[in-house]
């Protein structure tokens, strides 16, 4: 019995060994595929780090408003004048206007349609950058297609025939042909009621809207109580009544209708409202034609706008002009050409008015306005006590601080 058990044990052991050996043989002959890991590749680390940096955009160039100019071109076929400015600036206020119509725009460019025959259109732009505000002006000569005339002045400023434009660099002096065809017989305001100017800014006085940009006053200016009547300064005919950039008017005169059509000289009462005459009317010196304008001297701002500091005083003004032809006129001191029979009276009245202004009692609305105006806008009158001093001993002629012709840029023209 014992032997049988031993045999069974040996047999079981042999079977187990046999099975084990068979599995081992299978494993060797048919190995299970295994994935061999790839050797690790070190990541590329650049020696320099590159970052994408956008190219900086330079800030807009700071431009002085005095360097900015209006540029215009005209299209005869479409009857449009297109204007822009010479510098790309970020203005916080723009207002384009002209003497051709009531059309205005606050856009970057100005396209003006000319709807009537004109030889010259005056373009105006009120421009503000930060706290600096200025009014730019541009006289654009229109070709024959606009005017309906032949031989019109071209856009290059040269005429095809003989005209009254002076050559570049030619010297200028008071009227070379003797006397203009009409002489002044009125100051330009109705003094018969005893009205005395609050302030007179004489021709040639150094003034400024911005203290960095000084210029000579090119037209005598009377600051007067609101409602004061403006009178014709010569006997003659009303040639034009253009509406100005400041939303008021100018009454422009010549001695005759013929001279209105081709004027060499023009007399004007500028910055007026409530005009009571019409183009073609014949008027006499001293005859009322309008009222003084509530124009703002701060910069050319539509009349009626009370936002300008000088408007709070409530005084109005009128400017008197004697212009010598051309697209961009030259300005003469009008008081050089007063009719002899009126000269003494008119000059004496202005002398008395200056004396009254110099001695105005402190603390009155008049004196407050005078002080404000002197501090803000007059360069060569200011005195330590803030009062005006008309040092007429320095005047080159009675009521004319200078006798030079003054150009539209406010600078005297060389003699």
Describe the structure.
With 415 residues, the chain is an alpha+beta fold. Among the domains are: 65-147, Sandwich (Immunoglobulin-like), CATH 2.60.40.10; 199-394, Glucose Permease (Domain IIA), CATH 2.70.70. The protein has 5 helices and 18 strands. The longest helix has 28 residues, at 2-29. The radius of gyration is 42 Å and the shape is globular. Residues 23-36, 40-51, 148-173 and 299-306 have low confidence and may be disordered.
In a nutshell, what does this entry contain?
The chain is of the alpha+beta class and about 425 residues long. It is built from five helices and 18 strands. The longest helix is centred in the first third of the chain and has 28 residues, at about 1-30.
Structural class determined from secondary elements: alpha+beta
Taken as a percent bin, the fraction of beta residues is 15-25%
| Beginning-to-end CA distance, first to last residue | 158 Å
Number of E strands:
18
- Going by CATH, what is the homologous superfamily of the domain at 199-394? Glucose Permease (Domain IIA)
Radius of gyration: 42 Å
Low-confidence stretches: 23-36, 40-51, 148-173, 299-306
> What sort of overall outline do the alpha carbons produce when their principal axes are compared?
globular
The overall pLDDT, averaged over residues, is 75
Tally the helices.
Answer: 5
At the fold tier of CATH, the topology name of the domain at 199-394 is Glucose Permease (Domain IIA)
Highest CATH level, the class of the domain at 199-394: Mainly Beta
Helical residue percent band: 10-25%
The ordered H/E elements are: HEEEEEEHEEEEEEEHEEEEEHH
Largest sheet data? 10 strands, antiparallel
What is the CATH-assigned architecture of the domain at 199-394? Distorted Sandwich
